[in-house]
Task: structure prediction
Amino acid sequence: MGPRDEKRDCRRPNITSPSFSTRQVRLASGLVLFSFVATHLANHALGLVSLDAMETGRGVFLTIWRSTPGTVALYGAFLVHFALALRAIYSRRAWRMPLGEFAQIAFGLLLPFLLVDHVFGTRVLHETTGVRDQYARVIYNLWVVSPVGGVKQSFVLVVAWAHGCLGLYFWLRQRSWFARHQPVFLAVAVLLPSLALLGFVDAGQTIARLATKGGLDPSVTAMPPESASTAFADTARTIVYSVLVALVGGLFAFRLLRYLRLRRNMVEIRYGAGHTVRVPRGFSVLEASRRHGIPHNSTCGGKGRCSTCRVRVIEGLHRLSPPTETEQKTLARINAGKDVRLACQLRAMSDLTVIPLLSTAVTAAEVVPRLSVAPGREQEVVVLFCDIRGFTKLVEARLPFDVVFLLNRYFAVVGRAVEAEGGKLDKFVGDGVMALFGVTPSALDPCRGAFAAAVAIGEGIRELNQELAEELRAPLRLAIGIHVGPAVVGAIGYGSAIGITAIGDTVNIASRLEGAAKELDAYLVASERAARRAGLDLSAASQRTIDVRGRSLALNVVAFDDMHDLSRSLDGEIEPLS
Result:
């Protein structure tokens, strides 16, 4: 590719990254359609009351949606939403995606085909022949005349509602308040279609009984007269089906042609972890990762909102097109450098080398195994408390995703160090961690293991600081407290939250020592007893007596200003833990 090509590529717009206004138009049109479906389902649910209640509700429904503004809003929203959906599907380069995204796309493509018969059997029939599409007539046709049609329309309701709910979920799940109200949303998402289907069934059974007894009005059972209007409606129905088939079929035909064309112009994406993939020119880095099964964070689903997919561009930066408005806003919120881009928005128009900045190493697989319930007992344990200094100030103005990511990386460092030295993670409170040594069988000495874990934690945090140097306002600094003594150990909690833990004065003192480390600006403060039990060389430590809140007697402690002093102190002899 020559210089002219590179220059042209840099100016090429990002066709799969919709502008802010386009996204808002798609959202607004989707909300109009979702409102229509919701009110339609609510009207169906009135069938649980009576047919008269359904018809009364239909009057309100038609007042809204068959008025001139309602008609323009409804059909305009459908055309806009469908057109933008086809555009988004054409722009998508890879089909490997989460199941929820695939279901939303599949339902969206299926819905127009499922809705044609219903629209022509109600609104179009009414407008062309004057036949009143009252509930009794529609349900009679769907329940008595053509039960298969009734099953189909029930399926349409479920598909339409599921498509809308998935869209709302993908839009709202990043809001800070969503998790609190999610049970309510879920209840509505399940109850409304359930009540609508039950209302339809109840009304259908009522209509069937009336039809058997001859109690239905003739206008309900009469077939629409054959006329030029009905012939025109049938022709129009066929045309609509043909247009839909042409649009969707043409969409995938053009996608195939584009794929065959792009296969002749492949680019190479190299990842810092050693992976190298070849993809058609124009793929986003996230699409390349998904297509080749490379783990890559993307909390927002590739919409450029969360920054969790961001990468550092090592090679090829000067050939990239500038970030879109959406990408610029997200990168500005995290104070990203010029060489940082969002993988979901970054299109590979030439060879690239990138390094994903948010590791996917910490996954759900790294969970603490379920512990069996154990009776309480008193035993001697070593307790380690670890906390990040000034964490609240450190994460001010950072995105929620970044805070969670940073905490998980920090917890992973602490967890691996503790488990490697025979300890057990007990609990996480904010950015604080409590770990226990000596509560599970281990060949390692509990006291020495706790101090060795403290050294390993310091090493891990040093490496994390180097990795995230450009992301953090200041390096992470820790405060650690260690104490040894008797405690009550047992399975404490309720339900799935039960686990082996320790309670007692020893735990409280270890927590106070972690606070003392902050006050003394030390890396670690430990009780003198724990230090001597671990066989530390205390020549590099400062020794003092401090008052511990909640304890009448002063406590002899040792303080290490940094991790290196503590590491050198571990060369001393080990005294057995009695």
Q: What stands out?
A: The CA atoms of residues 527 and 557 lie 4 Å apart. Residues 1-20, 361-375, 573-578 have pLDDT under 50 and may be disordered. The chain is about 55% helix and 15% strand.
